């Protein structure tokens, strides 16, 4: 063997000893979190009654396969329609085109030997969630000490939306692809991103935000090139990957249009969900319009008026910008996590109509949990953990299990 190889130098055993505690530590955290989440699901199933999505006598399995999980299963079994279904009023109805194909078909392949799509879906969510924890730890460890990185993973594993790690949703898988991509960018290793970008883009929406992130990252690297060189090779990779993310981000719309013969097939499908709140919602997609429309709707429903809502939204945007730019704990995470978080929040502001899914759609900014873990105070960390678990209880029981009886238009 060549001189200096890991085997000759005896470093293989050293690396194994070094990595095993890290993997086991994360595994213990993750398994403990899943036990807590399962307990919450059991209680929520018992509390679900008439008028809820699940009804009386629901079991844990019913909750694990609830809501969007049914759509992913339906995609795996029936594929995508070549003719868009219409409502009685002639508008496009809810249909499979709103759900991207990687997760449902992968779950179908994994679950086939067991004769159950649900098994495949839950296995993917559980395994991808654990692997995402491992990558998150590695990513945080680039900027934080071991204690803070571990606590960042704890907050992530026990987070208010941690139920997505064990339900039939695509979030866990998307988070794995995303964390791997951010970690690779932070390490300046770009090759695997050419594969990860389409995996992200066909798992769930959000790859356009990654394209924006790469654009902002390129600008940041250019203006800081005196402290960290930005060679031509890296410039080519970052620009090419940014363009690749944009192409992938629009590809599903093109595919839906080609299959259905209707250019607006995907956007019209997405608007079908918006009509659950605004029955007259239709027409062309306009960036920012959905969010502004939603703010006006909700603040009007709460009796505070649209103007109050716009002011509140403006203050929230200013607060988030200040947090990402100036808050010292957030700055410790490095430019990659901060630029990604800003890009994704801009993306949500541009395309999303705020409703009951907004909490789940914020999960991709989970690397920010590292900032909450920076303070060394045990009291602080325990308090954040307790609040996270309380938030998880609230989301599982009220938002998810109670469903139609809890989240209602005032």
Describe this structure as you would to a colleague:
- This protein has 410 residues and is an all-alpha fold.
- The chain has one domain.
- Helix content is 67%, strand content 0%.
- It has 19 helices and no strands.
- The protein has helices at residues 6-9, 11-47, 60-64, 68-78, 102-111, 117-141, 146-157, 171-186, 193-201, 207-223, 232-260, 265-274, 289-301, 306-326, 328-331, 335-351, 358-361, 369-373, 378-402.
- Helix 9 (193-201) packs parallel to helix 11, helix 10 runs antiparallel to helix 11 (232-260) and helix 14 (306-326) runs antiparallel to helix 16.
- Residues 1-17 and 405-410 have low confidence and may be disordered.
Largest sheet: none
Counted up, domains total 1
Q: Overall pLDDT, averaged?
A: 90
Low-confidence stretches: 1-17, 405-410
């Amino acid at each position: 063997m060549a001189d200096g190889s890991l085997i000759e130098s005896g470093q293989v055993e050293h690396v194994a000893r070094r990595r095993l505690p890290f993997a086991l530590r994360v595994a213990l955290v993750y398994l403990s979190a899943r036990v807590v989440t399962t307990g919450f699901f059991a209680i929520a199933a018992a509390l679900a009654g008439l008028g809820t999505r699940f009804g009386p006598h629901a079991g844990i399995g019913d909750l694990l396969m609830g809501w969007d999980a049914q759509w992913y299963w339906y995609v795996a079994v029936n594929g995508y329609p070549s003719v868009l279904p219409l409502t009685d009023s002639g508008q496009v109805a809810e249909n499979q085109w709103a759900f991207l194909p990687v997760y449902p078909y992968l779950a179908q392949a994994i679950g086939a030997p067991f004769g159950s799509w649900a098994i495949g879906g839950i296995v993917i969510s559980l395994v991808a969630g654990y692997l995402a924890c491992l990558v998150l730890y590695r990513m945080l460890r680039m900027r934080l000490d071991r204690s803070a990185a571990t606590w960042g993973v704890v907050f992530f594993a026990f987070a208010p939306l941690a139920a997505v790690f064990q339900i039939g949703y695509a979030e866990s898988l998307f988070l794995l692809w995303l964390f791997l991509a951010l970690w690779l960018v932070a390490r300046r290793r770009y090759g695997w991103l050419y594969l990860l970008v389409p995996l992200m883009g066909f798992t769930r929406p959000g790859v356009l935000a990654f394209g924006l992130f790469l654009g902002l990252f390129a600008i940041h690297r250019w203006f800081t090139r005196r402290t960290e060189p930005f060679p031509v090779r890296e410039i080519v990779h970052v620009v090419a990957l940014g363009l690749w993310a944009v192409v992938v981000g629009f590809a599903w719309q093109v595919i839906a249009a080609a299959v259905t013969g209707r250019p607006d097939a995907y956007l019209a499908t997405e608007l079908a969900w918006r009509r659950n709140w605004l029955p007259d919602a239709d027409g062309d997609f306009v960036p920012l319009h959905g969010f502004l429309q939603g703010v006006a709707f909700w603040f009007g429903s709460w009796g505070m008026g649209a103007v109050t809502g716009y002011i509140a939204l403006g203050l929230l945007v200013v607060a988030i910008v200040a947090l990402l730019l100036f808050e010292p704990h957030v700055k410790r995470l490095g430019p990659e996590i901060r630029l990604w978080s800003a890009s994704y929040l801009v993306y949500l502001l541009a395309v999303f109509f705020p409703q009951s899914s907004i909490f789940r759609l914020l999960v991709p900014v989970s690397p920010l949990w590292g900032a909450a873990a920076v303070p060394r105070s045990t009291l602080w960390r325990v308090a954040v953990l307790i609040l996270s678990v309380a938030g998880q209880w609230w989301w599982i029981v009220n938002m998810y299990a109670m469903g139609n009886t809890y989240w209602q238009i005032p």
